[in-house]
Write a structure and sequence with these properties.
heterodimer, A: mainly alpha, globular, B: mainly alpha, 0% strand
Chain lengths: 295, 287
Amino acid sequence: MTDDTKINAPRRMSEPPFIRRLLIAVALAFIALFLVVPLASVFAEALRQGLGFYFQTLRDPITVSAIQLTLLAAGISVPLNCIFGVAAAWTIAKFDFPGKNILLTLIDLPFSISPVISGMIYVLIFGAQGWFGPWLMEHNLRIIFAVPGIVLATMFVTFPFVARELIPLMQAQGRTEEEAARVLGANGWQTFWRVTLPNIKWGLLYGVILCNARAMGEFGAVSVVSGHIQGKTNTIPLHVQILYENNNIPGAFAVASLLTLLALITLVLKTWVEYKSDTLRGTAFTPVPIVKKPR
Amino acid sequence: MPLGNNSICMAKKQNSVLPGFRLSLGYTLLYLSLIVLIPLAAVFVKSSELSWTEFSHTVFSPPALAAYRLSFGASFFAAAVNALFGLIVAWVLVRYDFFGKRIVDALVDLPFALPTAVAGITLATLYAPNGWIGGWLAPFGIKVSYTQLGIFVALTFIGLPFIVRTVQPVLADVDSELEEAAASLGANRWQTFCRVIFPLLSPALLTGFALAFARALGEYGSVVFISSNIPMKTQIVPLLIMSELDGFQYAKATALAAVMLVVSFLLLLAINLLQWWGNRYNATELT
């Protein structure tokens, strides 16, 4: 190798400083325009009428009832999807059976469906003209335009989060530790609580954080089944919409700032969990299909 | 000996020492069916109850055709813009060091973490003629909020993370030896990028594009505020379905939903194939 190539090779391994700076500038400008400016404007708009108005909006009984309903919907759907996620990941990662790839795709389905359709499917089943509509009317039960519909729609849109986080993680961990526990005399539940769960705790937490963010923020699906009854079937995002459409822009942004804070906390927690567990990478929100890499 | 191997596998599967297969599979299938599969099937069952003329009058009506055109067009352009800038963002995050890099990396996921309704009212306000950004554009006669351009802006916002997050891990895995080899064979940086790095990234880039496109097609919350929702002009398909639902036109909404579900399934299939191709491609190219 001549001296010439020795000097040139490293230089060719990277871009000239001018190009580097240009690319960084383009990337930062794009991020600033699409992410930072909107983020800043939420808080600027929310505080436009001053702090007094801001807290007055948040203390309003209708806002409080929207917050309560959102907490209720997330409080039911997140644990249920968590149990499902663990069961699905256990099935898929620890056993071999035909149709596994189809099951993986089906679990991902809710991600690829428009939120409007996600809400609509429950109207088709439980609505007045739906399959169970007449029966529900007879028994004076309400699902659509009531709280159960909101919970169902939230469950649907957050369905895959925990499962799709745990499946690749448990697949990568394999079965040997659980098999060893069994050989050493642990029963099934002991194996799960003492071996599997400690291994997947970060992945589970990660899934829960993302699932919760979506559950609390879901708008389209919930909007279809809610009926928008103020103080009764209004979640935080729906309340934002009502305030905005009533031209109470600072009020809408004050309530929206709560959801924005939730989003920021989610991002911080997510980054922290990624830092604690180096197997998790930031693709969690992105529904990239789970396909096993060929060896 | 493929047959022999197979039968060993079969025997192992049946005698797995781990318990709970039936319970966990049963629970998984039951929950999946109740929450996802049966409700989705309702769309197809309900739309099959329509006569063909009813169905075709709805799904080929002029507002529907205009909505498809706008949905596909705006989603395509939004995904294309994200493909270009997402690639640059991913490149910068993987290859360079700069102040605030970790914050930028975490912020990329904001469009997923931020509820779509918040994104919607924020973008509508920002790009309105009296907004921070809209105010700058208004003197040039550019209107964003309440036009088709506004829909494109909202779809670009929600699709932003897809390309970055699909390209980032693949780019980080690119073996530096490949670039060294290209450089020592006399390729300049641009040639190395075009002929060595870009082909390795292209499956991930395409996957990200397809994911962003699919997400944009179904998007509702961030668009509903920035679009004026005028039929034939600024109404994307989810808004059209919503307005049919608001008018209690369930048959029409169901027919349109069936069309969109078929499109979603086809895209999902394409994304799965792309992902499979990408993994295969990387495995053969890099080892």
